[in-house]
Amino acid sequence: MKLDILIVGVGGQGTLLASRVLGEIAVLLGLDCKLNEIHGMSQRGGSVVTHVRMGNEVFSPTILEGNADYIIAFEKLEALRWSYYLKEKGKIIVNNQKILPMPVILGKQDYPKNVVGNMKKTHIVLDVNAISIAKEINNPRAVNIILLGVFCALENIDIELGLKAILKYVKPQFHESNIIAFKKGYDIGGQYL
Length: 193
Description:
The chain is α/β, with parallel strands linked by helices and about 190 residues long.
């Protein structure tokens, strides 16, 4: 198995936690793994990108443009912004959430229309309303865990292995809601198989 995964979002969405969980999944699978975290203005809602590379041997922590097997996007404009990293037949797992960047808030730019629909013209896009699911389970911060569940199902990664990785990094008081979130994402991912 060799996978290059780009995780993208805005500050505060849990991209760094997601990358650490994927790294732990790789370790549990007996794979080599390299992470490269690129922090933008993460505390101010700026773009945050993490490269996760896993396989039998991984030499570089950075994914080259046009080589990502997956983009896991916690916000749809971030999915569009980084879509050029995706390789042909790669997949974008996107949380269908709109978070306005500062130029849009200030009225200097418009938020693009039909972001997900336009990406579907050129890419394989799995559109997940993870924010709604997260709110339903009273854990609005669980979008990252839901999307990881989708990814694990698509890659046939054992659900118990995924949960073990998550529970290593999530505080005990949030275990129950994150288990539910991961299982819901896993069920969604299974529908795409």
